[in-house]
Amino acid sequence: MAMGIAIGSDQGAAGEYNGRMTLFVVLSCMMAAMGGVIFGYDIGISGGVTSMEPFLKKFFREVYTKMKEDTKISNYCKFESQLLTSFTSSLYVAGLIASFFASSVTKAFGRKPSILVGGAAFLAGAALGGAALNVYMLIFGRVLLGVGVGFANQSVPLYLSEMAPPRYRGAINNGFQFSVGIGALSANLINYGTQKIKGGWGWRISLAMAAVPASILTLGALFLPETPNSLIQQNTDPQTAKSMLQRIRGTQDVQAELDDLIKASEISKTIEHPFKKIIQKKYRPQLVMAIAIPFFQQVTGINVIAFYAPVVFRTMGIGESASLMSSVVTGVVGTGSTFISMLIVDKLGRRVLLLVGGIQMLVSQVMIGVVLASQLGDHGGVSEGYAVLVLVLICVYVVGFGWSWGPLGWLIPSEIFPLEIRSAGQSINVAVNFFFTFVVAQTFLAMLCHFKSGIFFFFGGWVAVMTVFVYLFLPETKNVPMEQMDRVWREHWFWKRIVGEENDASKMEE
């Protein structure tokens, strides 16, 4: 987190709440954001080890044989294997299922216990993966990692959004994606180093090192404070929640915010089935965004780069070591652009970053597709100059994602739900995210084999669609307190027709 975003009042543009960014909030959110590090580490590590020859030779010999010995197979088809993609995607099936259990835990017991469960499950998965003797042991370890990521991704973005003052909510929540970038970059660096270990067991270190951030998250979660929203939701003495709110806001005058939290909690307690409640018409905008945003985040094609960047570079004929170093480069620029997003998201707003990032990703993907279509055939490689050009274009694409759909894909869903459906909404967001992550991860290598360079045009088309969607249907949410977020839908040109009709009907019934 950026310590320099420090001082100021939340009155004015952010609403009537008092308070400032406190060191207590910054430190708490830094610890919670370790949930992003474990997610990012796994993304980076799985893409790297699946390009390591000793790893492929031990667990996926069919792929190893195609890569080393089959001279007739197309460049684009060397890595096609449903078993290999199952290694990557099994985590996301487990995460999808776990996110729904995490919703109940997060609502009933609080954000902190859910973060703790996530860290512990990920720690167990890291140990199992590092010690794997066969592919079944390897994939079971991935399932445990998935449970950890499912719980962490459900609870951490909520925790960050609820702890942050409204004026700085974007910066604090974007710290989750920044942490994902740090985790992925760390994994890429470790892969680059372990690939050079003689004896071919470096991949074990890569997989087992996931235990480091998982241990930090698990131990750190024991000392995390619970959010005021969660304390009130759990029927805790309002004075306890008030004391916590005063501590995290750095002021004694928090009554206005506390009143809104209590009011939201009272509404929340009248709802027994939040998943049934969320399909009601008055929550239609939030439900659409909970499905559309994570879907669009995945069909940007980012996981083509995140999971399989080394595979893509090896497809172009680049060596193992150079492929892993290329992933390090993309990791550095992605993390840097997410940090920039943290600094500007609360000034420029969500919509501007999504629109600019979408155009940037579209242009770079089309150019990558053109270069590969013209230069990379079914056999042979590309020249060094074109390989560098593709790397530069991928970096431009990653920068665009890093300051737009990467962090904002987690920020926006975590801030738009009213308290009574917040846990359910975040679970839907995580589940949709994991489902389409699984679909992309499971199908990409087959799509690469059949679409060849056209794969980049395919994802580019989706980027065009989602950019238009943002322009037409996503209202600006910067500086709006979470408990007053319903007003952005009532003022939007399209959504006011739906939620406005619902409000009118409610008034007539009263």
UniProtKB/TrEMBL annotation:
Gene3D superfamilies: MFS general substrate transporter like domains. InterPro entries: MFS_dom, MFS_STP/MST-like_plant, MFS_sugar_transport-like, MFS_trans_sf, STP/PLT_plant, Sugar/inositol_transpt, Sugar_transporter_CS. It is a multi-pass membrane protein. Keywords: Membrane, Sugar transport, Symport, Transmembrane, Transmembrane helix, Transport. Pfam families: Sugar_tr. It is found in: Membrane. The chain crosses the membrane at residues 21-41, 83-102, 114-133, 202-224, 287-309, 321-345, 352-373, 385-406, 427-448, 454-474. GO terms for cellular component: membrane. Residues 28-478 form the Major facilitator superfamily (MFS) profile domain. The keyword Membrane applies. One of its GO terms (molecular function) is monosaccharide transmembrane transporter activity. It comes from the Eukaryota. Belongs to the major facilitator superfamily. Phosphate:H(+) symporter (TC 2.A.1.9) family. This is Major facilitator superfamily (MFS) profile domain-containing protein. It comes from Rhododendron griersonianum.
